[in-house]
Specification:
Elements: H1 3-6, E1 19-20, E2 34-36, E3 44-48, E4 59-62, E5 69-74, E6 82-87, E7 112-117, E8 123-129, E9 135-139, E10 150-151, E11 158-166, E12 173-179, E13 196-203, E14 214-219, E15 224-231, E16 238-244, E17 252-256, E18 267-268, E19 275-282, E20 288-294, E21 308-313, H2 315-320, E22 326-331, E23 348-351, E24 357-363, E25 372-378, H3 380-384, H4 395-407, E26 414-419, H5 421-424, H6 435-446, E27 453-456, H7 464-469, H8 471-474, E28 482-486, H9 489-492, H10 498-517, E29 521-525, H11 541-555, E30 558-560, H12 562-569, H13 573-578, H14 588-601
Parallel strand pairs: 2-22, 26-27, 26-28, 28-29, 29-30
Antiparallel strand pairs: 1-2, 3-25, 4-5, 5-6, 7-8, 8-9, 9-10, 11-12, 12-13, 13-14, 15-16, 16-17, 17-18, 19-20, 20-21, 21-22, 23-24, 24-25
Helix pairs in contact: 6-14, 10-11
């Protein structure tokens, strides 16, 4: 994989000062901001800590009362006696360690617990402990008593079960794990080079018995493991997020449209989701929250490398490979005494009835101390208030802000113009100025702001998601105060289906939010008219232009209505063609009209200005 792909890269008062921008200065070129909760001790609670004793990877389950949470974890790194505590008040306080069956002291792997319900409605809790053989214990009385560990079959694996999902038939469950040849059978079968295999295993009786596992993917080139599985909001698809243990590639994702029977080939996740042990949970508003350990491929680093982090976005972000809304550092992890940086965060998450996420995991939270268990509690609504891009803007306030900046001659402004071939303005202006260049003359000459910088980063053939993937290089690193976006012509070519139009809307919305996040004012331009008869791929241009209008309304963005001007003034095909160099791209005259409409919208129009004339008066 190329480096360029990897680089695309409480109360509000109590949280004051925790917001940190990461989209410009981070070592990794993340395109979303970072909200850092490391120092927010009001959100954190120690669940268990023991002097000179390593407490490892936890798992939890919440009972139907919405209050009682059972948490299990090993005394040791993965393997070791399984310990259990219980909270009866949504994790605010925890019991002492509770009695557990004798066989739990023989656990060889991270314990993981899940709720199951059989087709008769009988509820159970299942606890898994893997390697060979994979064993499990059941509780039929809401965790009050438990069975001893017993083999699920003559097979084993690693971190089983990293995920477990209910399938559509009552009592039918599918669980997921991996193995590298060491533990699937009683005899080691490690290949050279090592092959990592992903497995599914099913139960048809609410978890009481389990079938023989089925291999769904195997590779020596990518060591995919620790599958984190989440169902799509409409229930029709499963997505599997995967750690890439060789550290040669980004973390990966696979999809199933047939209840786990078959899966797509792995596809790289964006760097924002690189890491281990992805744990996905939906928020009450439908957004997707994923918490994991930040790890990057070899040769790459991040400011949160080895820490406990989270990601906020949508399921559609996973489908379309988008970078999401923002990242969270829940807690900084210190280097293990005598070990490595990154021994933390096999997290477990409960969505509480209050809408809060109760996050629990282990880590080296105190320097030079063994790992111990903590929880971090927060609500996305509260975190959103720390992220400016989440809140809709106000075009009137944005316009007033631009005009105030223009009035302040002592402070230079960085203006970025980004988009596709129309902003790139190659060939089709026939040597005349583009609209960004007219803007530059208006600002740097007629306004006499010679220290302002106008940066043009349009790229021919680009789309809204292309700008998102290259946000840092094309927008973020210039530290702009204003960002002008004219995009959509190539998105239009993807078709007029509701799915493609919604994809464009979401991408453009994400772009607006990211611009606001870096402190800049976004400006959107809708699309000029095109000659559809000459290019049927542009049939839906007007519909995509209307989506630009929609995003501007929804997000409170200044809109330059280029489309409206062209509709009003291009009364004949001949007149339209006089402003075009081909069926899509405006010529120099068309760009002059682009600039004039922008000047009018920003309150910068002057009929006596050379740059505000529809035809250069110096050439009459």
């Amino acid at each position: 994989m190329s480096k360029s792909f990897r680089r695309w890269s409480g109360t509000l008062a109590a949280l004051a000062g925790v917001f940190a921008f990461s989209s410009v200065a981070d070592l990794m070129a993340f395109s979303v901001p970072l909200i850092d909760l490391d120092d927010q001790v009001n959100m954190q609670k120690i669940i268990d800590q023991q002097e000179n004793t390593y407490l490892g990877h936890p798992s939890s389950v919440m009972l139907d009362d919405g209050k009682t949470i059972i948490c299990v974890y090993p005394q040791g790194h993965g393997k070791g006696p399984i310990l259990m505590k219980k909270s009866t008040d949504q994790g605010w306080t925890w019991s002492d360690r509770l009695p557990v069956p004798e066989s739990w002291a023989t656990s060889l792997e991270t314990p993981i617990v899940y709720r199951t319900v059989d087709k008769e409605g009988k509820k159970r809790i299942i606890l898994w402990s893997s390697l060979y053989p994979t064993r499990y214990a059941l509780s039929e009385d809401e965790g009050e008593t438990w069975s001893e560990l017993k083999p699920a079959g003559e097979w084993g694996g690693v971190v089983g079960m990293a995920s477990q999902v209910a399938l559509k038939e009552p009592g039918h469950y599918m669980a997921f794990f991996h193995d590298d040849g060491r533990f699937f059978t009683a005899q080691r079968q490690v290949k050279n080079p090592v092959v990592f295999t992903l497995y599914t295993v099913e139960s048809f009786d609410g978890g009481v018995t389990w079938e023989q596992p089925k291999a769904i993917y195997a590779s020596s080139k990518m060591h995919l493991c620790e599958p984190g599985v989440v169902r799509s909001p409409d229930g029709k698809q499963l997505a599997m997020l995967l750690r890439e243990n060789s550290r040669r590639e980004n973390s990966q994702i696979m999809f199933s449209n047939d209840e786990g029977k078959t899966w797509t080939a792995p596809r790289a996740l964006p760097p924002e989701l690189n890491g281990d042990r992805h744990t996905p949970v939906y928020a009450p508003d439908g957004r997707l929250y994923i918490t994991f350990r930040d790890m990057q491929p070899q040769g790459y680093h991040s400011d949160t490398y080895g820490d406990w982090v989270g990601w906020v976005g949508t399921y559609e972000d996973l489908v379309f490979g988008r970078v999401g809304q923002y990242r969270i550092r829940l807690k900084k992890n210190f280097k293990e005494p005598g070990g490595w940086t990154g021994d933390c965060a096999y997290p477990t998450v409960q969505l509480l009835p209050t809408g809060d996420f109760l996050n629990i995991t282990y880590g080296h939270w105190t320097n030079d101390k063994p790992a111990y268990e903590i929880s971090v509690r927060f609500n996305l609504d509260t975190l959103d208030m720390l992220y400016p891009g989440t809140m809709p803007g106000d075009p009137d306030k944005d316009l007033a802000r631009i005009q105030a900046m223009l009035a302040d001659k002592s402070t230079p402004i960085n203006w970025v113009f980004t988009g596709d071939s129309i902003t790139h303005a190659l060939v089709h202006t026939l040597g005349e100025r583009s609209y960004a260049e007219h803007f530059e003359e208006r600002i740097r000459a007629e306004y006499w702001r010679p220290f302002d910088v106008i940066i043009k980063t349009g790229i021919s053939g680009d789309t809204a998601d292309g700008i998102l993937r290259t946000f840092k290089r094309r927008i973020g690193e210039f530290n702009p105060q204003v960002v002008s976006v004219m995009i959509g012509m190539n998105d239009t070519r993807r078709g007029g289906s509701p799915e493609k139009k919604e994809e464009f809307r979401l991408n453009l919305t994400s772009l607006v939010k990211r611009i606001r996040d870096i402190g800049a004012v976004p400006i959107l331009h809708n699309l000029n008219l095109v000659d559809v008869e000459k290019d049927k791929r542009q049939t839906h241009t007007d519909e995509y232009s209307a989506i630009v209008d929609q995003v501007a309304r929804e997000q409170g963005v200044i809109l330059v209505d280029q489309h409206g001007w062209w509709v009003k003034n291009c009364t004949t095909p001949e007149l339209r063609d006089s402003w075009m160099n081909d069926h899509i791209h405006p010529n120099g005259l068309g760009h002059r009209h682009f600039a004039i409409e922008m000047f009018k919208r920003l309150g910068m129009y002057d009929p006596n200005s050379y740059t505000c004339q529809p035809v250069d008066p110096r050439r009459k």
